[in-house]
Design brief:
Elements (H helix, E strand, L loop, with lengths): L4 E6 L1 E2 L2 E2 L3 H13 L3 H4 L8 H9 L2 E7 L2 E12 L2 E8 L8 H13 L12 E7 L3 H9 L3 E12 L4 E11 H4 L1
Parallel strand pairs: 6-7
Antiparallel strand pairs: 1-4, 2-3, 4-5, 5-6, 7-9, 8-9
Helix pairs in contact: 1-3
């Protein structure tokens, strides 16, 4: 385990969330202020902080923390079998020199989570990233992921009113070894 980072789950326990809605709304504001919104929400399905809170409540999400500061956010949705679609945002608070360590730590933690019976929860994480986002594609591959191919017109870029190809990226425990 890398003591440099922590994954803090955003979940509900006995009717109480691990983070208040106001905190998640502040994270949404950081995404916008730091200029990540157009990249992360390229489909423009999320238009507001309230919409973002709803998306995270319907997903499996974690706040990524380094030195008690939120440096990122990751959430999984579209679960199927033992894999899910993964979404990332890394904040400016994360030193660039730590970016790959943060990614590898996060993938390792999620892919090694087990349920009460001792079975792995996820065997694979899957990402669809617009080809234009070369830094995100490189990031996943530098963290141990694999480019599985491209899907033509797989990403709706709402701001431009057109579809573009996406890179299909996967990562498994075996790839992390």
């Amino acid at each position: 385990m890398n003591p440099k980072f922590r994954l803090i789950p955003y979940l509900e326990w006995d009717g109480i969330r691990s983070f208040p809605d106001s905190y998640i709304k502040d994270l949404f504001e950081r995404i916008e202020v730091e200029g990540h919104a157009a990249t992360v929400f390229y489909e423009e399905k999320i238009h507001s902080a309230d919409g973002f809170v709803k998306v995270l409540k319907d997903a499996v999400a974690w706040i990524l923390v380094q030195d008690e500061i939120a440096v990122g956010l990751v959430w999984l949705d579209r679960h199927e079998g033992r894999f899910a679609r993964m979404h990332w945002v890394v904040f400016e608070a994360c030193p660039r020199r730590d970016l790959i360590d943060l990614g590898r730590f996060t993938y390792n933690e999620i892919l090694n989570m087990k349920n009460n019976a001792g079975d792995y929860i996820y065997d694979m994480l899957l990402g669809y990233t617009p080809i234009r986002n070369k830094s995100a594609v490189k990031f996943v591959m530098r963290c141990g992921g694999q480019l599985c191919g491209e899907i033509p017109n797989g990403a709706w870029i709402a701001k431009e009113g057109r579809s573009e190809p996406v890179a299909v990226l996967s990562i498994t425990r075996e790839m992390m070894s």
